């Protein structure tokens, strides 16, 4: 089923390294150095500009994150979110992607600065609460090129791993995976789909991110830039089930408006021939 989404303008993007970051998110740390199924030519080694973590800022940020996690967990928004995920139709979609795997790891791209802005903290809080609630959510990996050493240390303390390479959103889903990408730029979703433009790989993906229906709307008003940067997104609409996230509370509207779950189920390889990689 494809639900209707409110068509609201996204936050203005700002350019940062090789990503376009949608929202103005803004000691030493342990960062995972893993080489996943991303072509070597598209992996760029990354370290934060700030190499030393600040213990005082760490402590303050941990307090902020604990507050946000509690606020989300006790909210009507989270109650609605869980009801939606546990709806038989959506839960069946998760189980279809999970298959015989015991867990599906979560990859978070483009979370932004959790130290500088509340919306990224709310978005991260929801991901952490999902892992705590659902036994089938596995390890969480995070990447955003604007993360500081302090933020990376806090992410590690919350049970996440920070990647040491910029995959540019091109992780190949060799196994079932959740890609958690709230309010990322269109090109990042397109990179993910392009890298996984095969029946088997697409069937391994659960994507949380901007509504694809919204991109289709923008393409219909002949915005050539949107069309060029979202050709895989637009093509995937033909075989994607989209479930729009309910954002009844003003407290969480900015963090989650126009967000949806997306599940991909191309029936035939011929559906993928509509777009050339």
Order of helices and strands: EEEHHHEHEHEEEHHEHHHEHE
Query: How many strands?
Result: 11
State the major sheet. Answer: 7 strands, mixed
Q: What is the CATH-assigned architecture?
A: 3-Layer(aba) Sandwich
pLDDT < 50 runs, ≥5 residues: 1-35
Percent range for helical residues? 25-40%
Give the CA-CA distance, first to last residue.
27 Å
What class do helices, strands and sheet pairing give? alpha/beta
Number of domains: 1
What is the C-alpha radius of gyration, as a whole number of Å? 18 Å
Strand content: 15-25%
CATH topology: Rossmann fold
State the strand order across the main sheet: 6-5-4-8-9-11-10
* Count, helices: 11
State mean pLDDT (0 to 100 scale). 84
Q: How would you sum up the global shape?
A: globular
Under CATH at level 1, the class stands as Alpha Beta
Domain SRR1-like: 94-263
InterPro entries: SRR1-like, SRR1L
Family: Belongs to the SRR1 family.
Pfam families: SRR1
How would you describe what is shown here?
With 277 residues, this protein is α/β, with parallel strands linked by helices. It has one domain: Rossmann fold (3-Layer(aba) Sandwich). Helices cover 39% and strands 17% of the residues. Strands 6-5-4-8-9-11-10 form a 7-stranded mixed beta sheet. Strands 1-2 form a two-stranded antiparallel ribbon. It has a two-stranded antiparallel sheet with strand order 3-7. Helix 5 (149-157) links the parallel strand 5 (137-143) and strand 6 (160-162). Helix 1 (55-73) packs across helix 4 (118-133), helix 1 crosses helix 5 and helix 4 (118-133) crosses helix 11. The longest helix is centred in the N-terminal third of the chain and has 19 residues, at 55-73. It starts with 13 loop residues before the first strand and ends in a 13-residue tail after the last strand. Mean pLDDT is 84; it is low at 1-35.
